[in-house]
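Recall that a protein's primary structure is simply its ordered list of amino acids. Everything else, from secondary elements to tertiary packing, is in principle encoded there. The following example makes that idea concrete.
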Amino acid sequence: MADNSYSKTTVSETKKGIDWKRIARFVLTSRIIDDKEENELFPQKKVSYQFSARGHELGQVLLGSRLTHRHDGVSAYYRSRPILLTLGLSVEEAFAASMAKSGGYSDGRDIGVVCNRPGTGGEATVLPMAGDVGSQYTPAVGWAQGISYHQKELQEQEFEKAIATVLGGDGSVAANGFWSAITIATTQHLPVLFYIEDNQFGLSVPSEYQTPGGNIAKNLYSFKNLRIFDGDGTEPEEANELIKESVEYVRSGRGPVLLHLTMPRLGGHSSTDNQAYKSDDLLEQERQNDPLLKLKSFLIPDIISQQEWNDLQNEVKKEIDEAVEAALRRPDPDPSTTKKYLFSETKPDGTEDVQLMGGLAPQNHQFPESSYKVESEKNRINIVEAIRRTLEYELETNAKLLVFGEDVGEKGGVHAATMGLQKQFGERRVFDTSLSEEGIIGRAVGLACAGFMPVAEIQFRKYADPATEQLKNCGTIRWRTNNRFAAPIVVRIPGGFAKFGDPWHSESFESFFTHAVGWQVAMPSNAEDAVGLLRTAMRSNNPTIFFEHRNLLDAKYARRPYPGDHYAVPFGKLSKLQTGDELTVVTWGAMCERCEEAVRQRGISADILDLRTLTPWDKQGVLESLRKTNRCLVVHEDTQTAGFGAEICTVLADEGFSLLDAPVERLTMPDIPVPYNLSLMKSVMPGVEQIGAKMESIIRF
């Protein structure tokens, strides 16, 4: 549904019900901050990055003035400081962030305009921004889904009329995240306002390259379940009316809105951009279209006098000068804390140093009792059933745990691990998603920020590639925000070879996730460990990759009795599959079975160590074994170059060199994709014969 018409109302009607002097104050504040940074602080090298919002201020301030619900969520980008100021960011904090001084919303860890603001004081929450264009969209729909769940599933009326708002430029509408978020919001009827600021340029590229004709609103008129508003973001009357209608429409529960406003970008994309790609005529046209000038003309003399405007401007300038001096007096961040908050931390008194927002920890959620003690049933089950039963128990005992992904609902997952869960717990708790991994993970991040425990499924390891941006950003949220936010989620990913292989469904590539900062990585080799590790992941205050090896899902080797509803395996604690004194074998996943079989066939006395988790990994447990055997082989199916085995070998050579009687060696896949032909796959995948031969070679050294 589209609304491209704007009817001029009388001045008295337009000016009624809004504090225009407050609007003017924030617009002036944003403008003078940008002028100060561009003309003084950046040339003086007191600010390293400067992303001006000049020309964008009016619409953002008007929008921010209407985001007054305590559960409103805002997902924004690097040109969004005006809305932050409107929502409560102090001028001193704004400057301190740009100067990379202590305090602020990142303690000097992130670019000054990449903001966040926990809504712990009853105001709207600004979700942790990211520097990549378009990554802000799908977390916003996750927040919106959280609002809907609070209302409809948890019956919490305080969330009624709360909305999610996401800001983006015209360049961002070409990004994957935008289209994924639009699809989710419209198919799920979520309370989301898409606020698109169109300054006609994505850095130097005209908006016609981002969407046909250069106006995303016109191209989305036929999009079902999406209300469209389109207008001029430089005209105070028009912008105010369109923003008012847009916010009220979403708050009324009628569905998502896309509001497209045009405005000039009155500066370069960043401080280093001289805008040489713009003609002199265009630059002059943009200056004439300055929303600050139009706001001034709109207010004087009907609302404030020229003298009042001058006084306000001088007052703001004075405040900004004082804030600059206060920010400059702040110390630099303490370098001794730089590594802090990669993961959840513990205070000196032993209590958890809980983030302000995100996940269950800030709510002091109490989980059922957990234990490392096995309470086995009689019958053995496969890994698929182990996962299903663990999900079932956690769904029963945690109303804020949500399970979702492609085909996880009625079908029960392509590997059947969620079979029957939707019928048991309903479509709001176990649900299918659109075919967008970016959307699955971004939505999970937004839900986590909103206080949920999302358990997302990616059908195969290779399919996680489109979600790389969201996965990497999720892992660094705690560190980037200096523990103001965290996004504990679980991502279940089947992968690895099966009865046969191929490049698309059989990739393991777990080393990627061990390189992804801030992620825990678990890789169970049997049903018992699958239960214990998955339960720990779903109760963790950190994000976790839970890797389910395809060849083990129904393998006889991996079957174990169900270890009980309280069984939980601590991360970073290996499992000793066999004990011996000739050799230490370090492995994980499907290679565990092959290593055990190689030892059995050749009569080798070896410690076979299943790491179970790669981040963290049990370094001390491996070194302890090495002190006994003095020899080590690392076996994994991931490719060799920069595989996780290289990390283990390096650590052992560094910290265990004096213990070694032979070089630490690796046996891995070569640096090629997994072949489809079975004989080809067997020729390159570490097999029992190859593993046994390598073991004997190391022992003979």
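The domain at 2-330 is CATH 3.40.50.970 (Rossmann fold). The two ends are 75 Å apart (CA to CA).
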